[in-house]
Amino acid sequence: MPNSNKTYISELKDYVGKQVALCGWLYNSRASGKIQFLIIRDGTGLCQCIAEYGKVSEQLFDELKHLGQESSLTVTGVVRADERSVGGFELAIIDAQIISESSDYPVTPKSHGTDFLLKNRHLHLRSQRQWCIGKIRHTVIDAIRRFFNDNGFTLIDTPIFTGFAAEGEQTLFEADYFGTPIHLTQTGQLHLEAAAMSFGKVYCFGPTFRAEKSKTRRHLTEFWMVEPEVAFIDLDGLLELAENFVSFIAAEVLRENKDHLETLGADITALKKIKPPFYRLTYTEAVDILTGEKTQKFLTEQLEELQKQQRQLETKIGDLEKQQNGQLKQWQKDKIAAELIELRTALSETDTKIENNPKHAKLAAEFRWGKDLGGSDETIISQMHDKPVFITHYPKQAKAFYMKTDRENDKVVLNFDLLAPAGFGEIIGGSVREDDYELLVERIKEQGLDVKNYEWYLDLRRYGSVPHGGFGLGVERTIAWLTGEKHIRQCIAFPRLMDKVYI
Ligand code: 4AD
Ligand code: MG
């Protein structure tokens, strides 16, 4: 039975030399003659537990030897400090009770394909990678709330059912609201603007829905977004808020999750650089960079580097394939098979990048002022920087109706995107809001939207309008950037993707 005096693995440092009981699941095990090494996980960490023949009953020794991955159990033993051991401590087993046996657990420590893992997400969540990401997500969300709560913002819960579009009508999810069509929210921003006129500084934080027909690594149909909105703020004020906010999140993750970041292979040195000020470029400067010679040279060098990687991967794969044909033990075969899956995935990703490189170079060279920046354009600019980059003042024609027209240049709006570095791309979008009634009506009409749906929103410009603005940060994209995960679907426990909802 689960022990009421149980100790958590995360607390073992306080129990060296003492006897404790751990309750958890068998993560992995191997036997070496008269010793068995059982890795137990309990939700707080991993601990290697050692069963020695003669030190536990013969029956238990035998039971443990045949225990399947993910069986649940309680182990009692004495804690030893051991630097080489996972987590830094070991348990010398005295006794154990098996709570529930598991056999043929489908998600083995070797590599599996993406589709298989998504179908088995309910089990895959127990893997080290998913566990580390979940722990980091927890810190990110806690940091988000703390940053705004400690800086005088009031939390406003904005609705999920809404009657209008804020981020383009193409990505609205329709729902049937007692016979009337309604949408799932794309952003809490418009409601938040109303709240900012009451509370001054507000934020909302919740799930957001976009019927986005893109299967890219950056898109989910349901994602979490945090949005602050501030009355009496200008573009510079927003950029400062955003850079302090993102730096705070990065610092909290570094402080709380160093081990998790290491397990995931995240670039900790790069994260330490995430401090204000971030780079600032106007859209027009970004276009000059994209179409300039420096970018073409950068991409050519990148292509050469990718081709080098491709050759190295091909050689490694060839070597392993040869080894596979030799006389091997089962565990050696499994190890090679797992390595091959990983190397082949890396090779296919490299192949895709090589194929895309000239296309992206062409898109960049032919980019013309006026278009929104595309995914590949953002990637290029973000790859050329080692810290996040703000891009401001986009062409009005490419942006949402609510963005304020720059009074000094009416071709652009007072907005920004924040691109995470190292090729990751956009994690924040924000703007100063159009606060002039007439100009706002004009913008709504220009975009072919029905003014009737925005009457309440226009009231905010009728009664005591003030300069105000805010932004939205995508939680999954932020986590993917911080952890170095390639695909944001790994950054939420149960992802919703365009082509499939698995479980
Ligand atoms: O740039 P977006 O569309 O901005 C807004 O929604 C504004 N109303 C926010 C505001 O000013 N209050 O979205 C903001 C962020 C993006 O930068 C991105 O991080 C994330 O939300 N995002 C997505 N994340 C995952 N999947 C998608 N389909 C996303 N679409 C946007
Ligand atoms: Mg955006």
Describe the structure.
By secondary structure, the protein is an alpha+beta fold. The chain is built from 15 helices and 16 strands. It has helices at 58-65, 114-119, 121-124, 128-150, 189-199, 235-256, 258-264, 268-272, 283-291, 293-324, 330-365, 375-383, 437-446, 455-462, 475-483, and strands at residues 19-32, 35-41, 46-52, 72-81, 89-100, 154-155, 161-162, 173-177, 180-184, 201-209, 222-231, 279-282, 389-392, 415-420, 425-432, 468-474. The strands form three sheets. Strands 6-10-11-16-15-14-13-12 form an eight-stranded mixed beta sheet, sandwiched between helices. Strands 1-2-3-5-4 form a five-stranded mixed β-barrel. Strand 1 (19-32) and strand 2 form a beta hairpin. The model has no long low-confidence stretch (mean pLDDT 94). The structure holds 4-amino-1,4-dioxobutan-2-aminium adenosine-5'-monophosphate (4AD) and magnesium ion (MG). The site of 4-amino-1,4-dioxobutan-2-aminium adenosine-5'-monophosphate has 24 residues, from strand 11, strand 15, strand 16 and helix 15.
